Automatic annotation (TrEMBL):
<dbReference type="GO" id="GO:0043041">
    <property type="term" value="P:amino acid activation for nonribosomal peptide biosynthetic process"/>
</dbReference>
<dbReference type="GO" id="GO:0044550">
    <property type="term" value="P:secondary metabolite biosynthetic process"/>
</dbReference>
<dbReference type="GO" id="GO:0016874">
    <property type="term" value="F:ligase activity"/>
</dbReference>
<dbReference type="GO" id="GO:0005737">
    <property type="term" value="C:cytoplasm"/>
</dbReference>
<keyword id="KW-0436">Ligase</keyword>
<dbReference type="GO" id="GO:0031177">
    <property type="term" value="F:phosphopantetheine binding"/>
</dbReference>
<protein>
    <recommendedName>
        <fullName>Condensation domain-containing protein</fullName>
    </recommendedName>
</protein>
């Protein structure tokens, strides 16, 4: 079941990775890590929004990468809130986020949140090495060059907020 899920997730993957490598066969190495910790996120009237903060941050990251890579099919590494040690690379998985600049923001966020919720049933059963062996597209997806690590040290940090309006992403 998990292998089939990852094959379907990355079927017909057409993405440009950011940052672009300078040459074919170039072996990249980590030269800089940006680590920013948000100690507290205040959410006013959080009961009105169905989207988690992690969904909003992943969506913002996807939009940024789509713009920089000039693609509408974004893949980056991320983590899930419920994993034991989200700072570990064992808990990082490739997240595919299709970006349609004409889509309704509310529908797009809901689709992304649903996608991650589905992955929560599958991901803890497969490592990154196992995912990349599912298909050539899955292997390509696992070669992501950016990631966003979301760690939930206190459950209230991931309450939903109302700060993103339900208008089209333009």
């Amino acid at each position: 079941m998990a292998e089939q899920f990852w094959q379907q997730t990355f079927a017909d993957l057409e993405t440009s990775s950011y940052p672009v490598l300078p040459a074919v066969g170039y072996q990249s190495s980590i030269t800089k890590v940006t680590d920013y910790e948000i100690d507290r996120i205040d959410c006013a009237d959080s009961s009105n929004s169905p989207y988690t903060i992690s969904t909003k941050l992943q969506a913002a990251w996807a939009l940024l990468l789509a713009q920089y890579a000039n693609t509408q099919d974004v893949v980056f590494g991320t983590t899930m809130n419920d994993l034991q040690n989200p700072a570990s690379m064992q808990d990082v998985f490739p997240l595919r986020v299709p970006v349609n600049w004409e889509s309704d923001l509310a529908q797009w966020l809901q689709a992304n949140q649903s996608r991650v919720a589905t992955m929560q049933d599958v991901q803890p059963r497969m490592s990154l090495d196992q995912i990349q062996s599912c298909s050539p597209e899955a292997k390509e997806a696992c070669e992501f060059r950016t990631s966003i690590v979301l760690r939930d040290s206190e459950p209230e940090v991931y309450k939903v907020c109302t700060d993103i309006p339900s208008t089209a992403v333009k």
